[in-house]
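Mods, move this if it's the wrong board.
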Amino acid sequence: MALAVLLCPRGPLEGVGDVLRDWNALGLVEDFVLVDAGEPGGAADRSLLVSAGLARPVRVDELVARTEPDRVRLAVLVPALPDPCGDDEHLDARAEELRGSVAGQRGPALELLRVVLCRPGGEDALAGQVRGQWHTLVVSPEDSRAPGSPSQQLDERTDPVGIGPHAAAALCGLLGLWRGQPGAPYDGTSSSPVPRARVVRTFHRRLDLGGAAAQVRERVLPGGGSFPLPWDGDQVAVTVPADSVRQVTEETARRWASAHPLWSGREEVPEPRTEHVGPVEALRLFLGFLASAVRGAPERWARAVRHQVASQVAARVHAAVFGQADSAYTVVVRGVRPDGSPAGLEDLTRAAAQLSEVRLPDQPVSVPAPVRVSQLWRDFLGAAMTLLDAGERHPTLKPVAAGHQRAVLARTEDVVPPLDAVEDGLHPADHLGVEMRLRQLRVVEGGAPVERIQQLEHWRERWADSFATACGRELGAKVVESSREVRQILLALEEARGEVADDPAAGRGQRSLGRRLLGMAGVTLLLSVLAVVLGAYGVLDVATTAIVVLVLVVGFAVGGSVVFVRHQQELFQALARQRSLVRAADVHRQNLPRAVEDLRVRTELYGQLRRWVDVLARFLAPTGEPASGPGQGPTDGVTFPLSVQLGASAPDVDQVDLAAQRVQRATFGRGWLDRGFAGFLEHGARTSGELHQRTVDPDYLLSEGAEPGTALSRWAAADPATLPGAWAWVHRTVEAAVQEETTRLSASAPVVSGGRVRSHDEFVGEADLSGADRALAQRCFTPVAVGAGANLVEPPVWSVSFGLARTVVEHTRWLAADELAGRPVAGSARPVPDDDVEF
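Not the wrong board. Structure tokens:
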């Protein structure tokens, strides 16, 4: 890096600094330091660093120490004008002060240039401006388009506006100030103590590709927030029709969810089977009921019968769950908070975590293998990018096909809603949150205006086609599925306990049946007593009496049993169902921990989905603007001398179209988003590493939770402008390709310069350095020196090409002061020896 420092006296030469500052704002010249030489002493304190057209005060010595340039080019601007201005002695003294402040710094090489700016009528002062220890360079008072082309003498204007452009152009060539110019003519040459000078003139030619690059860029990136269509070989992808977007996103979301079922497996619950009550059991139950009827408590008998087949395992499991997680039980089973208000997703998430910590009796809790959520989210992000770039990332998440072509979504918002697509604190991908909010508005907040409900429903429908929203529905359905399964298991265990609430109607039925059977028993007993009395009086013999009593008892037993069985069908069905529940209770006990774990995992992943949707939205957010690439700003109305030729490449439309197509093919192939996302994910890993104070692998970030304070949550909330998103990669990559293509175009495209249209070869060829000897303005030399050829250009001419620009510096041989016009200062008229020529 080199630093140019200009010491400029006040007066007409102030226009030079003004012009250089304007050109710096246009991007034509590098930053430089401008030192005001208006007052004696302290020159370093009156320095301005000019950057982007703006000037700020600096101290040269401190700037050199801070920036550590390899080279400092110190130039003193000296006027040689018809009207004397300034004090040469004071200017020399201030130049030495500045030289001392810079030379005191260690490291940078120091080049000392004394640039004499001459105007017609001021030549008599040239000889007196030559100094030893400095490269004295007299800028020839002439202007021409190119080396060897006819030159015209500068006018006699000595105002800042008249002097500025020509002098500024010469300084840019001599000091290497043209943007991108590598080196300057006098880098590495030592100054001689012998006073000597050279007469110089400079030329600069620059081809601006900004207009051509803008045309190519507009065709590559048409705007509207949509990515260019990806290329597959020689075919470009097509867009999915608008009426098929929802079908595509829902099918992709379904495949993504199917690839990750998040299911830990279950023991199969035995099917209930039909059971019949046999005659012996019916008789036993009948006698038990009859005894309870005698005691006046038939309904308690019915409850006791059911409890005999109740599952003690289920009772203990239910007691453990309800005792250790009663609030979670309420949320999962009844869908409400302990206070009776509707439960939300956060309540369900906490309930699942609480239930997963319950220790069940009689059986160790089996913990399923950890879910590989990193692959889940990698597939989610990959599926989203596939919908935009048709890449091959997963065997079941293939790109959309449209015949023999691939199809992509036209808008990024069809993949993920933008960051500002939030309503009432809800995101479109939060399917459960939206549904719960609508339920609150419709049921809990019965007084909610219809317009408010319709507004939320319209907003939900507005983003329903999005892939992220479809994933929210799929993952939300899994959460609901797991919640329903846990609720069913808990209810089955509760039912298997055999605890039945008293039913008044059933109690009355049992008591009615008891009275009926007691009546039958009374009739049987009365008839039996009658038979015994008749036998005692000899009416019936003993055998007959015994037979009659036996028939009565058996008849009562059979008849009573028939009546009992007919009236206890509901009880017998409950007994059969209870036996089935008992058999299923042990299976439910084994399945409960797995179902709870699935619910916990699914609710946590549902919360992470919200974070990853935010991350995806930030990756795809249309941040930044296309870079303009190297070049200058608009130069309309800016005055340049003839020696500075700025041309603009003007390719035809067909050339621009072909260049844009080459850029698109090179940049936007199938799966092109992977290249941009790799840097984006690494940025997130660095964020996580800074949080955890260690190196973090990107897979760790993909596995991290969504709780507040985690790296994922911070990354998902970051300002998109600070993240290396997809558009940042697009702008950077496209700009490099556009510059390469427009440079290629410029070789065959015409050039517009100075209102003329010329071929590229003609524009570049004007800087050809071959040809006859060329001479500089004779009025800068004495007649004797002209006769000796002192005004001829000495080879080799210094020339440097850089990018689409070229700088040429022509110069005479080194001259003694008395070979220049005017009177030299005392001691400066000695001839320059031939072996002292260094350049």
